[in-house]
Amino acid sequence: MNNRQKNCKKMKLIVLLFLITIFKNGCLVSAHLDMVVPDHKNVFDLNLYESVLNPELCEEQLNHMLENDQELLFEFFDAGIRTPRGILTGGTLDLGNYHQCLGIHKQIPTSVVEGKYCMINVPLDQDWPSLPSTPSLPDITWPDITWPPQNQRYLKWRENIAKKSNDLRMAMAGFDSFSGATNESISALAALTFRLGVCIPKACTPRTAINAIFGGLNTSPIEFEESYCRLPKDKHWVAGDYVALIIFGIFILLVALSTGYDIRHNIFLQKDPKKTNKLLLAFSAYTNTRRLVTYTPVPGTLECLDGIRSFAMMWVIIGHTFVTQTQSQIMGNPADALAWMTSLQSVWITAAPITVDTFFTLSGLLLVYTTAGKLTSLKLLKNLHLFYLNRLLRMFPVLAAVILLQISIFNRVADGPYWNVEMTNTHRCRVFWWSTLLHIQNYVNPSHMCLSHSWYLAIDVQLHIISPIVLVWILTGKRKLAWSALVGSLIAVLAAATTYNFIKEFQSGPVIPSRPLDTPDYLINYYVNTLTRASPFFVGLIFGYILHLNRGKKVVINFYAAAVMWVCTTVIALLIIYSSYPIMQLDWNNQFADSMINSFMRPAWAMFIGWMIFACEHGYGGPVNWVLSLRAWKVLGRLSYAMYLVHYPLMFVVLAMPIVPIYFDVQFSLYNFFADFLLAVVVAFIVTILIDSPCSVLIKHFMGGGPRRPPQKTAPAIEPEMVEKELKTQL
């Protein structure tokens, strides 16, 4: 009995800590209290909800169902309130039957009864009344329908309906047990709040309907808070919808015309490709697809980068798959999820946030590698406006397209009982789209960013804006000045970030069970802060310069020295991944370790990535280089920017669709990852072919190919695509 009580206490602690973490993170992820959403930008038609309310009609329809139409009343019960399942594992949600509720439509003598779906919050810490007739479901009088006696299907249907009615009575009567329970595991549940889906006539408010059915029209048997209601066709059209349809319609038309021109001239007429108009081919899906999937090896290309980029992107997506489920407000067993997240088996997921620093490292590395030797300091300063403009323009088309998708299309492709998750994301983009396009969202509105993962793009752009301070010294051609600038800037960034981290005393991860109340401060002031995320970028600058100095040369390293470097960097990487395990424990309390992790984990990871690229490029990569240099990664590498932008919004669309709470399971989450990954690849391919590739051709045409490297006899040619990749977000 003592062991049982101990296990019960542990379970209560896990449940309560996890729920606190979820609700605090939920406030950060979906908070819109300080975000004013004008009615003309709201996802739902607020006037519709007000216009359907009619107290007289509500009372009339409720009385009719209670007295004359018990089958219709049971339809509302069947589509609505139930006791949540898995309460002892943190399950406090029951969604009812959303689509069944909204499908109720029945003519009665004086009006039409239609269903309205609502969510209510019912705290268990209340004085539960004695409800001798709970719920007030009279015996169902079955209609006199002539059926053949041998029709067992009808008899079985009647039996199932009667059983459901009895189950409903028992479930509702079970509420009384909480008030007088003495068992420790049950009494602890009084701190929880049930979130229940209810189905009511659309003319009623939830309080009116529940009062009438369970306690009479003038008394309330249950204390609850109304959350939101939904009606059929309640998503009204706003200006953003029309703008999105017009812009996407124009692009689709241009693609159709350009593809037709391409196929006619190059396939049917077989004309000389040199005589075709390049601008008319810019939107051709045929040519752009061929360009996307065709790869010609060019000396000087860092072949391993696409493999690194692809593996990093897969790690991002699988991490987001698990995070969106474990922190979802519609998960049915949060205690089980937390138990797994705090175990050693989950370190490959809890350590996933470090993979973003891989992209910062690649961004800094390619900035130097593709610029050094191509520009001088004077040319960089004279063309600084083009340096910035090229970067911004190459990122703009896909980013703007995904914002438009979030503003309109993603909101309309599906629906579900918890669509307010997707509603919040749409509201953010309708209100704060401008800060995302300006790449200032991590400072202007960090708690409700349009595209919550776009903080990476903001920091990446901000780092590129300040990069000429270092780059100008690298381009002088004087190694002492270059090394002084590179090392000095890295030391300055590390010193400033370390001082900031030790003063602010942040936790060391996005979700730390022992410090749930500190999560919002960590995410706003550390996780999306340019200073704290800059060190991998500056480490990347150093490795980019090292690769530039040894371009076209064979670097000779002693076998044992190379082996020692691989062992040391691999151990560092594994320690970084493992560090996510102790900080996820419920009893973790070591602020010094937290501050050290925050200050030095990211540059250490960047050193591991930098060494791996250097070793692969100069023949010390072995099987690692073989895997990372496979041609299979080329297409994924080229799609990675679009994949990064589209995958997270798509996850929220899918997450808002379930009609029942999600049960967390590792195997189930892995299958979801494959679905998320495939969906991201397909949508990213469409966005790249329809928008990114045509805009890339037009930008290069009107702005020119940029400064070219002077011909050199000793240095091999550089793949032209590397210059383009440097101008894009390096994902």
TrEMBL record:
Keywords: Membrane, Signal, Transmembrane, Transmembrane helix. Residues 1-26 form the signal peptide. The keyword Acyltransferase does not apply. Residues 55-231 form the Nose resistant-to-fluoxetine protein N-terminal domain. The chain crosses the membrane at residues 242-261, 311-328, 348-371, 392-410, 455-474, 481-503, 523-547, 559-580, 600-620, 641-664, 670-691. One of its GO terms (molecular function) is acyltransferase activity, transferring groups other than amino-acyl groups. InterPro entries: Acyl_transf_3_dom, Nose-resist-to-fluoxetine_N, O2_lipid_transport_reg. This is Nose resistant-to-fluoxetine protein N-terminal domain-containing protein. It comes from Spodoptera littoralis (Egyptian cotton leafworm).
